[in-house]
Amino acid sequence: MLLAAGVAIGAAVMIGVRRMPPAPAATPATLAGRGGDLVVSMRTEPASFNRLTRRDASTELVSILTQAKLVRVNRASQAVEPWLATSWTRSADGLHYTLALRPDVAFSDGQPFTADDVVFSFAAAYDDRTSSVLADSLQANGRKLTVAALDAHTVVVTFPEPFGPGVRILDNLPIFPRHKLQAALAAGTLARAWDLKTPPAEIAGLGPFVLSEYLPGQRLVFVRNPKYFLRDDRGTPLPYLDRITVEIIPDQNAEMLALEAGQTDMTTDAMRPEDYAPLHRAADAGRVRLLDLGVSYDADSLWFNLKPGAFAQDPRASWIQRDELRRAISMAVDRKRFADTVFLGAGVPVFGPETPANREWFSADVPQTPYDPAGARALVASIAGGQSPRFTLLTQKGRTSLERGSAIIRDELQKIGVVVDVVPLDGNALIQRFVSGAGYDAIYFRAAATDTDPALTPDFWFSFGSAHMWNIAEKTPATQWEREIDTLMAKQIASSDLQERKRLFVEVQRIFAEHQPAVYFAAPRVFVASSSRVVNNAPALIRPQLLWAPDRVAVAGAARPTH
Amino acid sequence: MLSYLARRLIFAVFLVFAVSSASLVLVRLAPGDYATESLGIAAHADTAAQTRRRFGLDRPFAEQYRDWIVRAVHLDFGRSMAYDRPVSDLIPERAANTAVLAFTALAMATLIGLPLGIITGSRRSGLLPDLIRIVSVTLLSMPPLLTSLFLVFLAARTGWLPIGGMGGSPDAAGGRFLDVVRHLVIPAAALAMPLAAMFERMQSQAMSETIGQPFVMAALARGVPRSRVVWRGALKAALRPVTSIYGLVIGTLLSGSFAVEMITSWPGLGRLMLDALRARDVYLVAGCAAAGSVFLAAGTLVSDAALALVDPRAAE
């Protein structure tokens, strides 16, 4: 593994900071035909076939292939689209959504889909004995929704309070077959249902594919679900593909080699900057298509431990939690150079948690910190009180962009008189330090966004949130500006007026930029690669970039539509 | 002899116990746990606590360790948290894959290394023996990790062989069996090449010494053809050193092919253990370590027994 990493770093050095040329933003759509196989690689195997209990990317991929939801957020356009629900209406008070379900839909085992399956799926996700990983993502402002079946094809979803994103939240819940899992829920054993020992024939879903074979440590094979209900605009039954084989290749270098050699058609993750050069050769030869998806939603950030009292016995208490220190750090780093070096020419400067990728919620009006090392030095001198500022920066070992980024931060801060001791830690150990809120000065890390709508990432913005990095799960807001953000976010979430929500969120971002509880430097551009035979997918920035709508993906050379 | 083997058996049991216990303790004491790993950075405290309760991670470590020991005595190594399956279910299927790889590599190493060792040991000079010696020394200095990286790179560039996985697809040309064989070539060769070099060097030295023995000289003086003396008479006597380490090599191969499995995506015990380590799946880590040490202990035992048979003084 070390050598593999060495090879990767070598490749990175070879391509240097060359700006990558633009690539097509989507694969051709005109060749889509029915039939054909696709081979996809994935680095880890699923922990379970039960999405209720696992949130790893592999289990999620199985769910994406085999299950359907009431609505689907189009990962490319970010619009909410009907899926199992054909339409919905909202009550005047904004609390109740009535959803009409698609009639004549059946699970892959032939059992009809009804409103009872929707009610069951919510009950399963909220069941305490199941301790579902989906429960947190199905709450509006920290409270559960209630769901009732009006008839076999109508459900009413009731929110505990007005909720701006509305039915978008339903994209978080796959619909499970009540007839298969009801007994397990009643017995309190749902958490252990559909484990990896379950015969594939036992797993029924509403998604475009069904699992036909699982070889531990090797591959999963999915074949077309003949009961899948969607058709394309020309009336051709979906999915286009006959079969998707997911090969498990644990090493990312081997994964890229397999793609380059034509032994797989795509990966389920984005490329690293260092993978670009070797794959570019395959692209030049016409074997591989490189796709530039644009700037990532996620950016690396640095935050200090702002928990009150965290440095009570520390002589650095007078300056280490001050806003001025974070502002000085923000001013000391040349973001353009940082982006070029850390992401090997494929990054852009960013100044806050929302990157330009988030077209709906990013605002160019939010103040941006200028590069001003002299100002930064003066600011540090003004708060240090004669001390030589020094702190430890934890980062995740093995993530090359984080390791490169923390090295640059160390070097840049040295120029303004701040000594930084960079300590790379194993991911689990890093999270442990962060969650405990003790035993760290500062962390440099990248947490992936789960949704682009800020109302669906409340744990980051609210002071009581579990992803409020600098001081998690505060009982009451520790500062006045956090209180203001809490108030604005509560209004923002409750509003059903999109323009008002945007205005409020710009205010939130302004306060954030003023205090910079987390300092952002750069976001990478996201590149994915697929073999040139893959057509008709709409790549998205969120994982799995090329397979979020597997029913639409096709391969060139498959049979033409027969309608 | 029997008491010697009994002593070695007791040592083997102690080895398995010590290795699995140490791995369990070390993984449990490392910062973080399965809940932080599986739920990620933004998990709610309640959700994390629920997960810890579900897997018993909220109990004192001494209590967890005591229960694990009691169960392990009954060959129950606990339940994997990452896979939510008994560890004793997960280990055999992966151990079988590792065994296929290890025995194939051993067969390749034996079939290549021993004959080449006989050639170099029975001829003092010449282009072929010199070439074999150079290649052997080069391969001996290359760990399997490097050879597997090189072979994977070669396969990717040429397209001659699959670069990863175990194959076994019924749709593959030639059927499931041939597909597995094609996928075996690279990982088995990566393991076999340094091993073949080692066998060649050992066999060469043993053969060289045997060739100088009076019984060989006498046979040659009587006019027996050299090839017959070397391949029949001298070979039998020169096999002892390699035979005595064969068991140990088997154990080492079965417990030590982890790096090759990772590079070549071979679904064996090594990959399972790495996944378990990443997930902080303490019971699965301990189970994998126990399986690895069982292989090593069994290999050592076989090696000791073989040595005792060849040279009874070793049992004293």
Concise structural overview:
The complex is a heterodimer of chains A (563) and B (316). By secondary structure, chain A is of the alpha+beta class.
Tell me what the structure shows:
The complex is a heterodimer of chains A (563) and B (316). Chain A is α+β, with helices and mostly antiparallel strands and 563 residues long. Chain A is 28% helix and 20% strand. Chain A has helices at 2-15, 57-66, 115-126, 178-187, 252-260, 276-284, 323-332, 335-342, 373-384, 400-415, 427-436, 458-461, 480-494, 498-515; strands at residues 37-42, 71-73, 80-82, 85-90, 96-101, 139-140, 143-144, 146-151, 154-158, 209-215, 219-224, 243-248, 266-267, 288-295, 301-304, 347-349, 390-396, 419-425, 442-445, 518-520, 522-531, 534-535, 554-555. In chain A, the strands form 7 sheets. In chain A, strands 10-11-12-1-13 form a 5-stranded mixed beta sheet, sandwiched between helices. Chain A is globular, with a radius of gyration of 24 Å. The N and C termini of chain A lie far apart (51 Å). Mean pLDDT of chain A is 88; it is low at 1-25 and 559-563. Chain B has 316 residues and is mostly helical. Chain B is built from 14 helices and no strands. In chain B, helix 5 crosses helix 8 and helix 5 (87-122) runs antiparallel to helix 11. The radius of gyration of chain B is 24 Å and the shape is globular. The interface between A and B is large, with 58 and 56 residues.
Strand order of the largest sheet of chain A: 10-11-12-1-13
Rg calculated over all Cα atoms of chain A: 24 Å
Q: What's the pLDDT, averaged over the residues of chain A?
A: 88
Q: Find the structural class of chain B using helix and strand composition.
A: mainly alpha
The helix/strand order of chain B is HHHHHHHHHHHHHH
